[in-house]
Amino acid sequence: MTGIIERRVDAPGDRPDLAAEDPKESFARLFDEYARPIRGYLAGRVGEHVADDLVAETFLVALRRRASYDPTQAPIRGWLYGIATNLLRNHVRHEVRGYQVTAKVVGEETPAESHDARVAERVDAASRLRRLAGELAALSETERDVLLLTSWAGLEPAEVAEALGIPASTVRSRLHRVRHKLQAFLTAKTIEENVHE
Predict the structure, then answer these.
(1) Looking at the whole model, is its pTM more than 0.85?
(2) HSE (CB half, 13 Å, CA atoms) of 16?
């Protein structure tokens, strides 16, 4: 049936009592369940090599701060993504610089008339990447985190809210605003390109 939004239902292990459980057992279980999706989210943001380091650091920080997790407040998934996102923010300057460099450098070369269609396709793809990278770099840190935690990590707004320490309604409104902003930008650029062709 279309139009139905599937909600994630808490599984019994989604709210472990980390302070009471044996840390070795509980963190082995948490790592087995959450390391791969967290790594996927981080790899999409900062690349695989840095993601591996950030995943390891995420679980080390979680282990050190296990007493601060309150299972009555939220499932563990949001808490872990919150730690990962905070660690990721240490790399934001690098990430933004990368987007800015990409926005300036990628696509500076224009295809000569003698190049084949494959080169033209690469330039078109580079141009789209440059535009999108520039827009991602222009977003605020929180807007970028909300967008990428939702789209790349697949978190629900309530989980993003837990990860970032903001209300779920704020997550939903920022997500709507960012998606609208990016869509409007890409649409305007497409129209502009079609006019100049």
Answers:
(1) no
(2) 22
